[in-house]
């Protein structure tokens, strides 16, 4: 009897040992299946899993179920949805419970995901400046360089560059090529313009000037804030009209403070100019001297949307050599169609102190500069084009010319306590861009060629 008892105990022990090994073997299989590299692809099946467990955000390796139909583990976390429904390791009811997508047999192996959303096979979406089409459960996208890229903005803001970047909604969806084409518009200076004799003052030093100078503080109410050229590539017209308007106000001691009309130049200065497709500043100054401009109130921007290229003003020369308008303003609500003219433009030396002297004595000046992609993202601080040794901040070959108005200067210590000198300039991208439409840029080092070509003028009153 004792022998049979021992044999029975032994047999029970053996059975338990075998079951334990079998269970351990099964666990090893499940653990292997649980690993990220070896998650098996499974097909759709019925059953309640996520409905009972709940849906987990992000990656949660504890948000699981034993999927007995496949002898594996399935997941109810958001991390499982890296492919089309049924082709990865989400639990069978994940898509209906956690995503709310009805799944049919025909959609099990087709479709793409973007931002947690499922798109059917053949769907087309816009991804910033590129369009993407879902083909064979993969996104096929155009590969244009976008004007705005969040990772570039983050890289600038996380770095110690002295300025901050912003994601501007007006630039989102535009390619870099479109930004250059639509938002700038000043032709590179001609050889003749670059050979113009420069006005120089060699006897002045930086100590002869205040550390800070802003034209709007020196001449309050006479300096005109930036306008918005929108997607009209005519910075050549905006910068010219604005500099002339400021100098007329200063020269007349406040008797004439009208802002001048860039649209007058865009629509009427057509000799070798392309309007909203680009133009030269020397052509703009030549037109301003010969024909003059009316005010911005008289000839508003984009006033005639049906035919914006049609010139809306005309004039003749009177006995005194002044232009007189022969038609009322395009804007019927503005009674004054007075025409303002300026003399021939002159070039200021690229010396920092010569530029400062001209601004302090006679008013803002016009500058032609190079624009790189990071300039579009400028929000605040002292701008300097980022010339990295690698990565996405390097775009030395991607640049175009642009013209702006310099209104003053200043100096501030940087993060390391070093003195940083800067120009204060007005852009033509509206008040929502930069520092209320203005920007500061490194001074005294010809940053982006901003000191290479400085233009000023004297205007008839």
UniProtKB/TrEMBL annotation:
Signal peptide: 1-24
InterPro entries associated with the record: Papain-like_cys_pep_sf, Pept_asp_AS, Peptidase_C1A, Peptidase_C1A_C, Somatomedin_B_dom
GO cellular component, one term: extracellular region
A Pfam family annotated for this UniProt entry: Peptidase_C1
Domain SMB: 51-104
GO MF annotation: an example: cysteine-type peptidase activity
Subcellular localization(s) per the UniProt record: Secreted
Biological processes per GO annotation: cell adhesion; proteolysis
Keyword annotations of the record: Disulfide bond, Glycoprotein, Secreted, Signal
UniProt record similarity statement: Belongs to the peptidase C1 family.
Protein name in the entry: Tubulointerstitial nephritis antigen
Organism: Podarcis muralis
Lineage: Eukaryota, Metazoa, Chordata, Craniata, Vertebrata
């Amino acid at each position: 009897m004792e022998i049979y008892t021992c044999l029975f105990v032994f047999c029970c022990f053996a059975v338990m040992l075998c079951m334990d090994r079998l269970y351990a073997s099964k666990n090893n299989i499940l653990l292997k299946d649980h690993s990220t590299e070896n998650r098996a692809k499974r097909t759709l099946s019925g059953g309640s899993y996520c409905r009972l467990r709940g849906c987990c955000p992000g990656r949660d390796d504890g948000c699981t179920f034993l999927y007995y139909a496949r002898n594996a583990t399935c997941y109810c976390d958001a991390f499982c949805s890296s492919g089309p429904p049924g082709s990865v390791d989400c639990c069978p009811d994940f898509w209906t419970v956690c995503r709310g997508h009805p799944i049919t047999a025909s959609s099990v192996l087709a479709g793409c995901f973007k931002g947690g959303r499922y798109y059917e096979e053949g769907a087309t979406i816009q991804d910033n400046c590129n369009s993407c089409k879902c083909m064979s459960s993969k996104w096929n996208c155009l590969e244009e360089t976008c004007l705005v890229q969040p990772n570039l903005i983050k890289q600038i803001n996380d770095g110690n560059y002295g300025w901050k970047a912003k994601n501007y909604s007006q630039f989102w969806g535009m390619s870099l090529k479109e930004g250059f084409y639509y938002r700038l518009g000043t032709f590179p200076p001609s050889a003749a313009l670059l050979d113009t004799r420069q006005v120089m003052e060699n006897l002045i030093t930086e100590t002869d000037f205040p550390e800070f100078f802003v034209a709007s503080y020196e001449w309050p109410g006479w300096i005109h804030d930036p306008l918005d050229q929108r997607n009209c590539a005519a910075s050549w017209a905006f910068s010219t009209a604005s500099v002339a308007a400021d100098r007329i106000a200063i020269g007349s001691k406040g008797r004439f403070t009208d802002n001048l009309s860039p649209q007058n130049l865009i629509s009427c200065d057509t000799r070798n100019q392309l309007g909203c497709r680009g133009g030269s500043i020397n052509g703009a100054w030549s037109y301003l001297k010969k024909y003059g401009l009316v005010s911005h109130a008289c000839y508003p921007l984009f006033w005639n949307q049906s035919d914006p290229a049609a010139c809306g003003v005309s004039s003749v020369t009177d006995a005194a050599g002044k232009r007189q308008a022969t038609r009322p303003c395009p804007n019927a609500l503005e009674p004054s169609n007075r025409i303002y003219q300026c003399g021939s433009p002159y070039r200021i030396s690229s010396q920092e102190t010569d530029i400062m002297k001209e601004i302090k004595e006679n008013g803002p000046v016009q500058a032609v500069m190079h624009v790189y992609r990071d300039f579009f993202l400028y929000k605040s601080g002292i701008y300097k084009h980022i010339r990295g040794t690698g990565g996405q901040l390097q775009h030395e070959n991607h640049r175009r010319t642009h013209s702006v108005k310099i209104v003053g200067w200043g100096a501030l210590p940087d993060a390391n306590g070093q003195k940083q000198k800067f120009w204060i300039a007005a852009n033509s991208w509206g008040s929502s861009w930069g520092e209320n439409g203005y920007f500061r840029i490194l001074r005294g080092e010809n940053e982006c060629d901003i000191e290479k070509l400085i233009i000023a003028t004297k205007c008839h009153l």
